[in-house]
Structures are given as structure tokens and as C-alpha cells.
């Protein structure tokens, strides 16, 4: 249904989306038992939540890229390959080094000296 200036108000509007996005939504929707529009609305809601939570653009891009890689992997792919991909993504983004530093800081305790 398209948006128009009719006297009756409608809760629906038409938008143009790339055929690639619609195709991805159709694939995802079928396994989740959603309509294509419902799947796109779901993704939009996730995006609003991510944006409101302070997720950076680079973190969002990394998550999307990692998701796309996993979706492209064959079903019988080695789980160690997925783990290695996660590790490499964390290493390249600097998250791994940051997590290691944080872990070390959390484990350090002040040295108590007996006087």
C-alpha cells in the first residue's frame, strides 16, 4: 500500500529498497516465519537498539561483516575456522588487545607490603 494524502490515515507506507536487501530479508524471514516486511522491521528495530546502546559504526560494520562471512560458510564448515575468523576479526579491530589489557588489569591486585 502506498502513502497518499487521502482522507483516511494509514499505518503503512511504501519505500524503495534494493533487491539485494529484499532478497536477504526473504531468505531470513522464511526460517524465522516472518513476512519480508516483518523481517525488515525486525532488522530496523535491532539497528535502533544498537544505535541507542552506543555501538560504534566500526563495531556495527565488523559485526555485519562477520555475520556475512558466517552466512556464506558451508553448513559443514569446521567450527575451528569460525573461531579463527572471530579471533582474526578481534585482532584486526584492536578489540583483542583491548580485552587482554582489561583482563590483565582486572587480575592485578595491589602488592601489600608488611612493614
Describe this structure in words.
This protein is mainly α. The chain has 2 domains: 15-55; 56-106, no CATH class. Helix content is 65%, strand content 0%. The protein has helices at 19-32, 36-52, 57-72, 79-93, 95-107. The protein is extended.
Q: Whole-number average pLDDT? A: 76
What level of helicity do the residues show? 55-70%
Strand content: under 5%
Shape: extended
Q: How many helical elements?
A: 5
Largest sheet: none
Number of domains: 2
| Straight-line N-to-C gap | 80 Å
Q: Helices and strands: which structural class? A: mainly alpha
Name the helix and strand elements from N-terminus to C-terminus, one letter apiece: HHHHH
Features:
single chain, 115 residues, mainly alpha, 2 domains, 5 helices, extended, disordered N terminus
Topology:
Blueprint: H1 19-32, H2 36-52, H3 57-72, H4 79-93, H5 95-107
Helix pairs in contact: 1-2, 3-4
Task: Please provide a brief summary of the model.
By secondary structure, the chain is mainly alpha-helical. It has 5 helices and no strands. It starts with 18 loop residues before the first helix and ends in an 8-residue tail after the last helix.
